[in-house]
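Blinded run. Sample ID left blank on purpose so nobody reads anything into the name before looking at the predicted structure. Input follows.
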Amino acid sequence: MKRVTIKIQGITPYSASRKTDEIPMMDRESHADYEQRVWRDKVTTDAQGRVCIPAMAFKQGIDTAGYKLGEKVPNRRGATFKNFITSGIVCEGDAPLRVNGSWLTKDDAKPVTISANADGVRGSAKRVPRTFPVFNQWECEVVFVVTDDILTEAVVEQHVKALGVLVGVGRFRPEKGGPNGRFKVLDFVWEDFRL
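Blinded prediction complete.
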């Protein structure tokens, strides 16, 4: 097994969309007022208050990159790396964001208000304004543990780069038809990993 620490830098803004169902509306508060009160709470934060991209965003993103690339495994009769990536790569944890060496917090977010589907279903009739947090500049380190030896360093690196360009992370990313959450890889650092 191997562990890889990947330093990435956003090339498009990152926008979070964590649900805020646990924050109740106040008495006589309109939906618009509620959105203006809770939009910063749509980011994921760690115990230190740093804005993070959830580990599952990277895990699901690399799985999607495996599907999109459809790269064939040599000498495996047409098998692709997709299933090996799904079962053989684990993201170690959420990735705290920083810019110019400083950790990002909810207070660093800028609001963007869009006309969204009220029920969350794309193409439904009713649209309502929703406000989301956006970070125009961001970078982070994400750590993957690679448990399957068929996933060489070159294969993993290719799929991480595809994740950054074709899939992205966060709200309105390329996978969902938007431009947000794209990134470039600055560095890969590999090490052997034992349980």
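Unblinding after everyone has recorded impressions. The helical segments are 31-38, 55-69, 82-88, 153-167.
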